Amino acid sequence: MAQQLANGKQQFIDGNGNPLAGGSVAFYLPGTLTPTNTWQDPGLTILNANPVILDANGMASIWGIGSTQYRQIVENSVGVTIWDQVVGLVDSYQLSSTGSVVRTVPSKLQESISVLDFGADPTGVADSTSAFNSCFAATTNPVIPPGNYIFNEQLNYNSTSKLSIKGAGSSVTRLIYNGANTTNDCFVFGTTTGGAPQLEISGVRFLSNTKMTAGAGVHYYGLDRATLRDVQYSSQDENNYNFYHGAWVTGCDFSYFDGFQALAQQDGIRCSGSTTLGQADIYLQEGKVFGCTNGLHFSGGMGGITVDNSDIIKNLTNILVDQADLAVTNREVFLGSGLAIDSAGTSSTANGIGVDIQDTDALVIFNETWVSSAGILIRTGANYTGPLLLKTPFLFNADTNSGTTHGNAVEIGNVNCAVVAQAPILRSIQGIGFTCTAGVNAQVVVNNPVAMNQMEVFDPATICPTFIDNSSGFGVQTSAVSLAANATYNFNNFSGQINVQNNTTGSIGSVICGGGGVLVLGWTGTVGGTFAYNSAIAGYTFTNTGSSTAIFTFIPIRQRAAA
Q1: What is the CATH number of domain 10-92?
Q2: Does position 145 have pLDDT exceeding 70, yes or no?
Q3: Which CATH topology does 112-292 take?
Q4: What is the pLDDT of residues 498-515, one digit of tens each?
Q5: End-to-end CA distance of the chain
Q6: CB-CB contact of 433 with 447 (8 Å)
Q7: Is the pLDDT of residue 202 over 70?
Q8: Cis upstream peptide for 51 (omega within 30°)
Q9: For residue 247, what are the contacts with CB-CB under 8 A and spacing of at least 6?
Q10: CA dist., res. 225 & res. 251, Å (int)
């Protein structure tokens, strides 16, 4: 860019605007009469006399040091003072506000060092890898102005120094991998030994022009107190699925993903923690993961995982919790009330899963979380013993896509899994609300379940629920009641059909108590029982007709809709 050059000489004038011919300019340290040097050349090799004598046009060539202030005394040819004041050179800077101080222009400019200062190309034509590397080496606070920056090789910030990257916004600052290698990580921050402490990235979108077959779009090593705000790993508006994994975190503690987006062929965001249990917390909020095989994948050793105010949607499995990367349980998973886990399943031949817990004993809490539209809304694995806590979850639309036999809200894979469901809300469940795929008598402690359509809330063949309160639509029931021979148990707040099932012989009888619900009764041993209407309580009384004490389990469910 062409620029106008400054005058080679300075000209001084008198009070009438005339050249100060034969005048003089003396230079001193501010507030003193201690002389200080000036020079005749910009290389500062030829000293001026002090004072400097002006020529017939009132001119002289005077060069000084940019960071220096001078007391300047200007006199005419007969020694009359024209002015006496402190001056700075052209690279001084000072705000007009009260209390501001004089600074040099270079120090002001160095507050913001841009990748453009090192030759990065925002037009997306030239490779910017070298420019970014040079910028990151020069400053820990690089600025990335709007533009499309192309990288023909991996960008690797393999330093443990703190780094704060500021883009202009994820919609306008785009970093695009364009390399030939299809299996590496496209962008890397941190080292496998020292991590990436207190990394900050804001206002950036990472993309790839290359269809990757392995690796991550962005691989973070050792995130420690990191903040990643308005960072996107591809974006739904571009529908770019060239990343294999979107973001991959290997080692993490107390770090934030805030305002994220991720699209990838495999995992949208994948996180593993530490071998030290409980020291790997991560918070994800205000984000969206869309159309991946696994939306969020917590792959072992995480401490506290909090996900809220986000859409995890249309992934084959929306959230996966396992130990794929680190054989250490994930300690706690908190899924919040602002989280929508929706529309799982991207394959036309497979049921999607809302949340798949293939861990061992992670505490997983759903706190008024919306889980919807999947073949299985929540599934736990064969090795998972819980606890699984469902606090008023909205479990909606479990369907039987592609002719499979699922369509269940909660599938429990271990009969010893501890499940507590507080006021679960179930709607449009085509299969069963709670079922166990690993055997019988899986324990579910439930409080006030609400079923908003005809369905079996509990699979009577596999689930043994314990009711701790009045259950909407079900009445007052309990579980594991010990009754002596000929002892009775009253049902005084129940209307519906009571099915009597002997879990040993498989025989089933029933008593009609009116409309509204179903009660399934199972018992231990070969003893049996009878129901009779009891006018004293305006309800039904069950009597143990066996000759010895037996333990009975009462399981209310809603009747499944007719096929």
Answers
A1: 2.170.14.10
A2: yes
A3: Pectate Lyase C-like (2.160.20)
A4: 445 444 444 444 444 443
A5: 77
A6: no
A7: yes
A8: yes
A9: 216, 217, 218, 219, 220, 233, 257, 260, 262, 268, 269, 270
A10: 12
